[in-house]
Amino acid sequence: MKDIESNGAGLKLSRRLSALAEWVPQGARFADIGTDHALLPVFLAGSGKINYAVAGDVHDGPVEAAKRQVAEARLESVVAVRLGDGMSVLTPGEVDTVTIAGMGGSLMARILDQAGESLNGVNTLVLSPHVAEEMVRRWLAAHNYVLDQEMLLEEDGVIYTLMRAVLEPDPAEAKARHSRLYDEGALDPRLSRVSSVLLYEMGPLLLRNPTAVFHRKWEQEIAKRERVILQLSYSSDPGAKEKAREWEEDVREIREVLSCLPEAKRLSN
């Protein structure tokens, strides 16, 4: 991965981690869950952007590597490295911003779902699921966290999804904001209706501001689905034909959405 940013301690971040770092509020009390080598908290602490950090990981190896990283940067008084599963490494109210990246959306949603009181005081979530992004968006919508940033970033041939959500403390206001965010008429008049399933899967903010990377991602997703359809065509399972029809309808809907987005025309030239 290409290094593009460094802090005062000389630590460099990839483009993806750099983009996540930009979304962390100035002066945050920060936690990085699944921290690996603690690159993000050390970078943020070394640059003075955050006041405090917890770097948590469930595996011994990454925790030891994180401790070395923190020690080399002489940031032991700012960054606490802890071994534990998910957000169990936090005490209620300890941090206000949490980043989780580099894992699937189902695992990410499970970590958030099991956080319990560890989420107390957490106003900002900065997340980067590498698959099943819709599961994360549905968790956010169900727990009054409202998306305010989404982006796709391509690095070394891999397309990453990044999202930031902010807690809306008023449940009624959170419901109203989510209703607007996942409005099935979001693309009207270009397309009269986008199913809520696709809004959660493709990303409501990404759909409203499509980029070339967005189109590449979804052409790749269509190709994956078409491979599944082909495999189903060879299956002797009695339900295979019905499953294939469902996948075909899914592909048809995605193609319809892509065809109406302005970037699609530019890409075809």
UniProtKB/TrEMBL annotation:
Enzyme Commission number: 2.1.1.-
Pfam families associated with the record: TrmK
UniProt keyword list: Methyltransferase, Transferase
Transmembrane region(s): none
Top-rank taxon, per record: Bacteria
Classification via InterPro entries: SAM-dependent_MTases_sf, TrmK
Leading EC class: transferase
Classification via Gene3D superfamilies: 1.10.287.1890, Vaccinia Virus protein VP39
An example Gene Ontology molecular-function term: methyltransferase activity
A GO BP annotation: methylation
Protein name: Class I SAM-dependent methyltransferase
Organism: Cohnella silvisoli
